[in-house]
Design a protein that fits this description.
The chain has about 130 residues and is mainly beta. It has a single domain, classed as Nucleoside Triphosphate Pyrophosphohydrolase (Alpha-Beta Complex), CATH 3.90.79.10. About 15% of the residues lie in helices and about 40% in strands. It has 2 helices and 8 strands. A hairpin with a 2-residue loop joins strand 1 and strand 2. The longest helix has 13 residues.
Length: about 130
């Protein structure tokens, strides 16, 4: 049986005034209703950082400045594996306020309150890195 390599996916841990932004996935999509650090798939030939900027512009209409890149890791779902490439960011000075174009809602959460949200399973390991 042939196994596909994990799909590269980026996510943004966007910080502002000590809070972290979470985005709620829309109902009807994979992991619908769960909260996540926004991002998306890396297209073939695209760098992870370019994918991050493209996805945030498409999904949230905002731009960010990367302040740190965290270690990528693989997470297996029943439908396939992803290689999650997390970036810690802040909104760029010229950025518009993020708006949920493809999500149901956005919230800014204190670090200690992140555990009270039902996070997408691949995002849960990042809580340790943010503690």
């Amino acid at each position: 049986m042939e196994t596909k390599p994990p799909m590269p996916v980026v996510c943004a841990i966007i910080m502002r005034e000590g809070r972290i932004m979470l985005a709620q996935r829309p109902p009807g999509k994979k992991l619908g209703g769960m909260w996540e650090f926004p991002g998306g798939k890396v297209e073939p030939g695209e760098s992870a950082e370019a994918a991050l900027h493209r996805e945030l512009a498409e999904e949230l209409g905002c731009s960010v400045r990367v302040t740190k890149t965290l270690a990528p890791f693989v997470h297996a779902y029943d439908w396939g594996s992803i290689e999650l490439i997390p970036f810690v960011c802040e909104l760029a000075a010229e950025s518009a306020e993020p708006h949920p174009h493809e999500h149901t809602a956005l919230v800014w959460v204190e670090r200690e309150d992140l555990k009270s949200y039902e996070l997408a399973p691949a995002d849960v390991p990042l809580l340790g890195a943010l503690a």
